[in-house]
Amino acid sequence: MLASEVTMTSYRTDQVGEQVRGEIMSIIRRDLKDPRIGFVSITAVRMSPDLRQARVRVSVLGDPDQKQASLQGLISAKGLIRHELGRRLENLKYSPDLRFELDPSIEYSVHINELLKEVLPAAESSEGSPRNPAEGSDFVGFTEEDQR
Question: What is the CATH number of the domain that holds 29?
């Protein structure tokens, strides 16, 4: 966590965080030419209450070496990104200091999804074929006569 960050966030910090997120994604797509930066997605931006610091959570597709290389590319381009943010976001008095960090949440969700795929087919095969809720005795439906 940032030193000045508190657990409660305000509506303003959330809005500015989303605006900063969109602008950083635009800058990465259009302005950065660093070959180290691969397929990068910004999952979240957390702003400090005074809007001077931003923690940018980044998800990178690839192996751990590609992730580290992309993170290093973003860190080295931090000055350019901050300068462009200051130019584009005229509603902010100060351009926020950026802190990039890897976000493992997407990898974790893929891992959980794989585990569920392993478990669920085994559960369905033990019960027989998967049931359709519309078929069977548990479903109570209306006929055309009931609706009249």
Answer: 3.30.300.20
Reading the block at residue 132, the tokens are 């359709």
Give the domain range for residue 31. 11-109
Query: Taking the model in full, what pTM does it have?
Result: 0.69
Q: Say if residues 54 and 96 touch (Cβ distance below 8 Å).
A: yes
Rounded to an integer, what distance in angstroms lies between the CA atom of residue 8 and that of residue 65? 35
Integer Cα distance of 61 and 59 in angstroms = 7
Q: How many domains does the chain have?
A: 1
Residue-wise pLDDT tens digits, 96-138: 999 999 998 888 888 899 999 988 876 665 555 555 544 444 4
Tell me how far apart the alpha carbons of residues 70 and 15 are, in angstroms, rounded to a whole number.
26
126 domain residue, yes or no: no
Q: How far apart are CA 116 and CA 98, in angstroms?
A: 36
Inside any domain, residue 99: yes
Domain contains 142: no
CA 101 to chain centre: 12
User: Would strands 40-47 and 53-60 be described as parallel, antiparallel, or unpaired?
Assistant: antiparallel
99 bridge partner residues: 55
